[in-house]
Design brief:
This protein starts with a helix and ends with a helix. The chain is mainly α. Strand 2 and strand 3 form a beta hairpin. The chain contains 13 helices and 3 strands; from the N terminus they run H-H-H-H-H-H-H-E-E-E-H-H-H-H-H-H. The chain folds into 2 domains: 105 residues, DNA polymerase, domain 1, CATH 1.10.150; 176 residues, Intergrase catalytic core (hpI Integrase, Chain A, Orthogonal Bundle).
Length: 298
């Protein structure tokens, strides 16, 4: 159904708007990616496109470290498509009418307060000794305490953990390696996970991955997204969150507690400081504190 709508839209761009072949191809490519994202979540009608679906898609792009310029272009393509669907009465309303571009940081997933993070992580606390639930708890702890992307978490190897140095060696975008400090709580959980939990998920000593499925295989990123959504409901969190929200919260809480932006940039693995700034929100009280402390006329 959505693919048919896309063909109608392409025809509209070509015949009525008179766009060049290159422009039409660019719109088709952007929207095909968006539609593929929706269909993987069993959403295949124009009516299924709502603000949350669009935010989920943008969040998935940010999770994959897609450039801000690409995010902006994808959003513009989606806005034009949704406007067309409303004009043609395929849907009742243009759901993107209130989404202003290019202020993308307003559209990306909310970050959680420290209290909300505690609520969220507590939703994983009652494992009952189930190795799968204990694995899930460990994944969530590392996503927040180390600011990992989902792709980085599912590809973590056992050898990435250095208990002596209390660090995690992470391979990020562009195969760039970085070291991230690991807190004592997470280290204790990792020791127990490796000693008691992971052996219940595989009988093989040759599997290098830290986190495994119930069949001893590599985890699926989409499954972790669903796990986060379900946990947010259990925790009573009404914000639209994704796994990336935990990474976003990691950076925000570091900054709010006085960490240098360059240090946060290093831990997140960003090559450009401007990318790090997208992740950060500083409460007005923190800004006032900095002003009073450092400005000569404060």
């Amino acid at each position: 159904m959505l693919e048919r709508n896309l063909e109608y839209f392409v025809t509209y761009l070509t015949m009525e708007r008179g766009l060049s072949r290159n422009s039409v191809t660019a719109y088709r490519t952007d929207l095909s990616d968006f539609i593929d994202f929706l269909q993987r979540r069993r959403l295949d009608s124009a009516a299924a496109i709502d603000r949350e679906a669009i935010l989920d898609y943008l969040g998935s792009l940010q999770e994959a470290a897609v450039a801000a310029t690409t995010l902006a272009r994808r959003l513009i393509s989606i806005k034009l498509f949704c406007r067309f669907l409303a004009q043609e009465k395929i849907v009742a309303n243009d759901v993107t009418a209130v989404m202003d571009s290019p202020k993308l940081w307003q559209l990306l997933p909310d970050y959680l307060s420290e209290r909300e993070v505690e609520q969220f992580l507590r939703s994983f606390a009652d494992t009952g000794g189930d190795p799968l639930l204990e694995r899930n708890q460990m994944i969530m702890e590392l996503l927040y305490s180390c600011g990992l992307r989902v792709s980085e978490a599912v590809n973590l190897k056992i050898s990435a953990v250095d208990f002596d140095e209390a660090t995690l060696r992470v391979v990020g975008k562009g195969s760039k390696t970085r070291l991230i400090p690991v807190g004592e709580r997470a280290l204790q959980m990792l020791r127990r996970y490796l000693r008691e939990v992971r052996p219940q998920l595989t009988q093989s000593n040759r599997e290098p991955l830290l986190f495994l499925s119930r069949n001893g295989r590599k985890l699926n990123r989409e499954w972790i997204w669903k796990m986060v959504k379900d946990a947010a409901v259990r925790a009573g969190i009404v914000k639209n969150i994704h796994p990336h929200t935990l990474r976003h919260s990691f950076a925000s809480h570091l900054l709010a507690n006085g960490a240098d932006l360059r240090v946060i940039q290093e831990m997140l693995g960003h090559s450009d400081i401007s990318t790090t700034e997208v992740y950060t929100h500083v409460e007005s009280s923190r800004l006032l504190e900095i002003h009073h402390k450092f400005h000569p006329r404060a």
